[in-house]
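Interim report to the steering committee. The following record documents the input for ZSWM6 protein (319 residues).
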Amino acid sequence: GALWMCIVLNPHCKLEQKVSWLKQLKKWNSVDVCPWEDGNHGNELPNLTNALPQGANANQENVGQCKSLEYQHLPAHKFLEEGESYLVLAVEVALIGLGQQRIMPDGLYAQEKVCRNEEQLISKLQEIELDDTLVKIFRKQAVFLLEAGPYSGLGEVIHRESVPMHTFAKYLFTSLLPHDAELAYKTALRAMRLLVLESTAPSGDVSRPHHIASVVPNRYPRWFTLSHIESQQCELASTMLTAAKGDVRRLETVLESIQKNIHSSSHIFKLAQDAFKIATLMDSLPDITLLKVSLELGLQTVLTAALSLPSSKPALHKL
């Protein structure tokens, strides 16, 4: 029902289509078994819950209204009247659901479920080879998510307890990079933020991650999966650094994003190592810009670690 709500609320659908769907949904609602499960109710409408590889389950906590996208009975590329396949529609619904802004739920189990289900759905999407039609869908949805209002997790303004988009943005970035590098970087850079730390970290001290409950007791739920989330943020940054090798402008932009958004000194140190390895990976001359990025991140690691020691702060501030 939640999945069909996404489809029926599509502003691009024609009125006659909605009327037809409503009639069909009422018909389906009158039977005891959902269509396609027992094969006895015909195939009047495309069932988008069956258009992705089996096993991708996404609950409402994780991907909004995008539910149970499984490939069971329908041929994935069976075409509709307007030339769109079931697979294309299912992928678009999945992207819409994954990009929705949602508040981090309470409790360890619920938070782990958010991460696990998102990663499972993205894993299934990665099995699909992108053709020109799907690339257009990715571009359209990326632009929409960047420009959308409060319903988008990649919008300009989000709630500070919104579930981060690092994992989803890494998938979008790698998918879009060969086709639209500018859009790929814009999407990934927007997703780098981690507002739950920015809203609680003491001014001038970003040397380590802060659990929100430890800073503001009884006001916000604890983020039990924060260490995993920060690891995903680091992976997104490392992916951008790797892709930006040889591009001075991109590398400077990614460096600024890392310095602004990553608060863990251990992850900054890891990125310094990654930058050094990427810069010296080939037998040719090392990438000077990447070496500078590695140096700056290394220095930032030392300074933030030193600032975390109370006895070191007066001397460092004088410097």
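Residues 37-64, 66-83, 200-218 have pLDDT under 50 and may be disordered. The committee is asked to note this result when reviewing the revised timeline.
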